[in-house]
Queue: 2 jobs
Job 1
Amino acid sequence: MFDRLADGYDLFNPLASLGLCNVWRKKLVRLAVEKCEPNRLILDIGTGTGDLIGSIADSGNKAGHSNSHLGMDFSGMMLERAGAKFKFIDNLSWVQADAAKIPIVSGTVGAVVSAFTMRNLKKIAREALAEVYRVLAPGGRIWFLDMHAPQMPVVKQLHRFYLKTVLSGIGYGVFGERWSKDYLADTILAFGPAEEFSEVLRQAGFKDVGAQRLSGGIAVIHSGVKK
């Protein structure tokens, strides 16, 4: 599914989020650049076309940091587009892999980030988070940006209407018959409230778990630290 959506992905995201995805992503980039320890690897799981890790690498390099960066995804077509977009960044590489089987040595990663990935991994969240925890060094950090259904009743109903009507129209307009129909809306609505995922992170072993709500709770940056 993600392979066939790769060529329209960069157009769809800002249209579908009314440009907010770029605002949300910038907040996560700032956190990663400011708080990740130097001389570490920063891993982006579910990197897609690479906008998150590419922006972190570019911003970190401009700030004089010395981190290395790796974008990981199971979609080869997404990674092809990512590599072409960010070929000008030397300390950035890509790997095709499963989030439940991360091909990295244990305890070697300074931070793991993701944007709009974790809700897609809900069925394998335990395995994926165990792998994230394994590869992180002690004190390593996570920042996961994702979308949730807002909890305020009126906003929640408007949000659901948008997902089922307007979003679907944008999807068909960009992708045509390749559009994944209700997949995006269904994964957002099924992800549950932010507090629920915070508890999943705690059960996975992370401490100092936080949830920064953005745009009325439509998006959340989840954070935590490896003990």
Job 2
Amino acid sequence: TQLGLVLDDPEAEVSDSECTQDDAIVIRIRFIGGFSGTLEERFSRDLTAQAAAAAFAADGNEVDSGEIRDVVAELAHMTAGNLKAMLPGDSQVVYPGTIDTRTIEEESIATARFTFDGEPLQVNLSRRSS
């Protein structure tokens, strides 16, 4: 809501809303402590451009990669902060997150797919194996 983007109905089926590996910007936020794992958010490139344009009151074609990175990191940190309250024990968020397109080797425990103004966003929570 801060960026004026419309989250499509989370109850609706959005199975076709995945980002392909080539079209994704991925950020990972680590948790340590009571819960050890990773929050991964996978954004379409078009969604990140829209979000950055909204955040910086610019045209989508005028945002640069630094502004996109800032917005993606801020969105992931907001999600991580809210999620932390639901994790077990004394879990802590490790800042900053990493932005890349690699995959990680952890056990996925929850995945949610959304669309913002028709653009895909995938959120995955994984746990580090003991």
